[in-house]
């Protein structure tokens, strides 16, 4: 059985001269773990689309109908924040 760690390890082996700096993943913990195991020096970044999709689905599931639009806008604005202070100013 081919696991993600085996697949990424093979990629690293066949691309010896390549130094991967950043890998973008969805929120899958097994992907994150496999990248960290095989390429420990690289940054793991969550995909903005998948993060937004997950948060908006949570808003629809857990917020009352009257709050959903406002919370969806907060999620969208928070995704555009470049600095931590900017993010926390939304709340």
Fold topology:
Elements: H1 4-14, E1 22-25, H2 29-38, E2 43-46, H3 48-62, H4 65-79, H5 84-89
Parallel strand pairs: 1-2
Helix pairs in contact: 1-2, 3-4
Describe this structure in words.
The protein has 91 residues and is mainly alpha-helical. The protein has two domains: 4-46; 48-89, no CATH class. It has five helices and two strands, in the order H-E-H-E-H-H-H. The protein has a two-stranded parallel sheet with strand order 1-2. Helix 2 (29-38) links the parallel strand 1 (22-25) and strand 2 (43-46). It is elongated. The protein starts with a helix and ends with a helix.
- Poorly predicted regions: none
Number of DSSP E strands: 2
Continuous helix count: 5
Mean pLDDT: 93
Rough outline: elongated
Helix- and strand-based class?
mainly alpha
Largest sheet: 2 strands, parallel
Q: Taking strands numbered 1, 2, ... along the chain, how are they ordered across the largest sheet? A: 1-2
Estimate nothing, just give the exact number of structural domains: 2
- The separation of the N and C termini measures 46 Å
Rg (C-alpha, Å): 18 Å
Strand content: 5-15%
């Amino acid at each position: 059985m081919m696991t993600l760690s085996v697949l990424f390890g093979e990629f690293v082996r066949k691309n010896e001269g390549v130094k991967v700096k950043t890998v973008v993943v969805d929120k899958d913990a097994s992907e994150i773990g496999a990248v960290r195991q095989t390429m420990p020096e690289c940054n793991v970044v969550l995909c903005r689309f998948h993060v937004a999709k997950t948060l908006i689905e949570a808003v629809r599931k857990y917020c009352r109908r009257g709050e959903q639009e406002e919370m969806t806008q907060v999620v969208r604005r928070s995704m555009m924040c470049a600095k931590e202070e900017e993010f926390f100013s939304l709340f």
